[in-house]
Design goal:
alpha/beta, Rossmann fold, 5 helices
Length: about 160
Amino acid sequence: MNILSHSVKQTQEIASKLAAQLKSGDVLALTGNLGSGKTAFVKGLASGLGCAKNKVLSPTFVLMRQYKGKLTLNHFDLYRLKNIRQLEQIGYEEYFYSDGITAVEWADKIEECLPQGYLRVDFKILDENKRRLKFSSYPKNKFAKAIKTVKKTYAGNLRKT
């Protein structure tokens, strides 16, 4: 399913709505070019989970940050990841299989490390403010309810491409 976001604020709102549908242990794999909205999306997740979204920073230099809310949000940014060994050294599996929610920016760098069940969100820049967010569930039905809720809320912003 594709949704068009027309602003950073709307990207955050979409993520906040999605956060309300997520369960303990869920993993989100975020992909897209630099500046496509991945960190803005994580800020929305944080807000929806009751974390302070203004505390959310791209953890580029430390690979991972945690934010406390209704559920802990584990935020990985793998932009500067050189190899899987770096991820192994921080014990990524402990976070991926924790009771919190895990959001992984640049997840395409570690596809082989992702759990069997995860929600992939691909971000595409369409213009200065507009983004296409493509939601894909692995396995297909694991996140069906969450996707359906977001789809219902943003029906006017759906796009087939």
